[in-house]
Structure prediction request, 616 residues.
Amino acid sequence: MPTPAPGTSIERNGRQAIVHVRGDVVVGTARKLHATLRALQRRRDVREVVLDFTDAGRLDSAGVAVVQLAKKGLGRRRTLQLTGLDERKQAAFELAPAPTKARKEPIAVTYLERVGEKVLETGASLRALASLVGSTLHQAMKVLTRRAKLPAGSVGGFVVTMGADAVFIVGLLSFLLGMTIAFQGVVQLNKFGAGVFVGDMVGMSMIREFGPMMTAIVLTGRTGAAIAAELGTMKVGAEIDALTAMGVSPVRFLVVPRLTALTFVGPALTLMAMFIGIAGGMLVAALQLGMRAGVFWDRVVGRVGLHDFTQGIGKSFVFAWIIGFAGAHLGMRATGDASSVGTATTRAVVVSIFCIIVVDAIFATITTLGGW
Amino acid sequence: MTAPLATKGVSVGYDKPILENIDLEVKQGEILTLLGGSGSGKSTFLRTLAGLTPPLAGEVFLFGESLYELPPEQRAPLLQRIGFAFQQDALFTSMSIEDNIALPLRELTKLPESIVCEMVRMRLALVGLEGLGRRMPSQLSGGQRKRAALARASILDPELIFADEPTAGLDPVVAAGIDETLVKFRDALGMSVIVVSHELESIRATTDRAVMFAKGGIVAAGTLDELEQSHEQAVFEFFHARSA
Ligand SMILES: Nc1ncnc2c1ncn2[C@@H]1O[C@H](COP(=O)(O)OP(=O)(O)O)[C@@H](O)[C@H]1O
Ligand SMILES: [Mg+2]
Prediction:
């Protein structure tokens, strides 16, 4: 028997409405019956709806859901009856759970509560960070005093991926940066006939500011993000729990090698960035002013003192630790699912760059006020 | 009426065949259990039946059509008529259970959201997860996740549903609940079910017909009673050795 085209016809009988269902009531067609029943629900004069399935075809879960919704929609005062059900349809309706009360709306969270929650969350996060720093130092001390050891070859491997692979990009960027500073410097200083001072300018800015800063930003994007993603993935995959359960300290196994490598790599790349930047400035000075490299270098050396150099390198250590701890901390706080790894990675980058710039500003303020 | 699923001379495997020359037919509204030792190729075979891994040789007929003869873009309408519950639950970890289950409805149908929610609620109740829809997959136990996976696989009322070891590693009570769900799929929703299982208890509760894979092929097929009489070594061991 071919099933008739889906549709309904409604027969009114006083306060009763009889809906004859024709054809299949399945995923593809259930909307029609849904619309019909919704229209009936809105009519106040209908007290009783009878659904007649005698001529109906197949009925699937979508069809059952439509009837369930209608039952709920009619409320307790009005009734819905089903007739003409064969055994299979009867069984399908019997499976359906009793209607539940309308779901409680979640209580709206006020702005103040949200701020409060954020503060508590930040507090918890800072405590976790402090304990991560603490246990990293503790584990590092244990390694230094030879009471524990790092996974074989780990530090060397990280030095290569973090450092060697970043040499080219850091070199290129600082060369371009040195050139740019020199270009600007030559144009401005020449106005006062002070073009030779471009050496002072490039040297000072590369060594005190841009060498450390440029390196830190590249390291954040490459290494900080990678640390957060690696540790986050391991956290989500319960690998970190597995280490803890084995009695292996995840901090010693995962965090200490990465931070140790960063402690070497950050300052080393910074040192390189400083000199390559100066070389870039040298090139521009030679081209624009015809200044010989020796003269340029003498200006740099005459200007930049050991304490400037120490400050630049000192900052690079601090920046490296910021990058390492931010990546490790946020990675290890990832929870549950894959998207939290993405969030952790992004936050590691944003938080690192923010902290680096804040710390740099504090450095600059203190050293300037202190006259160092 | 054509069988929902049939294979003709199918060989499956990766570089070299694991199962060869399999002829199998699944009848409308039956629960067919695939038996076989670990690594005998049951999961691979299921993947081939469901359009996930092409066979090395032979043909798979899904609802009368030769699945792998069709260009991939024309397979989708056939594949929408089957459901697959993976051995790992394969739930989307970043979505709530509700959203996981509703995903096929939202992506493949034009049903309004009110019907979608009601269908999800009905299916959660059917698999015994009432009230847990708002949870994330990581907040459920292993057995609950398996049931959520079954709910997602069955939400479009597929005519044919595959379940790869749905009860493996679960305690008998939870496993019995899942068996009951499979039986409901068959009896109330009229689905054909193909299930891989090792648990004799589950198998007895559900199976209409079983097929035993060993030695790269089917070594026995039939009802459980028939299999239990079999003298094929692998089959005999399966039914008798463990009770000793
Ligand atoms: N992606 C794959 N690539 C290569 N070989 C695989 C792959 N997946 C499974 N196998 C191999 O195929 C065989 C059958 O595996 P499988 O179908 O999972 O067995 P079962 O589910 O019966 O335990 C095993 O020997 C397994 O090592
Ligand atoms: Mg398997």
User: Anything to note?
Assistant: The radius of gyration of chain A is 35 Å. Residues B 14, 18, 36, 38-44 surround adenosine-5'-diphosphate (ligand 1) (CB under 6 Å). The first helix of chain A runs from residue 30 to 42. Chain A has a mean pLDDT of 89.
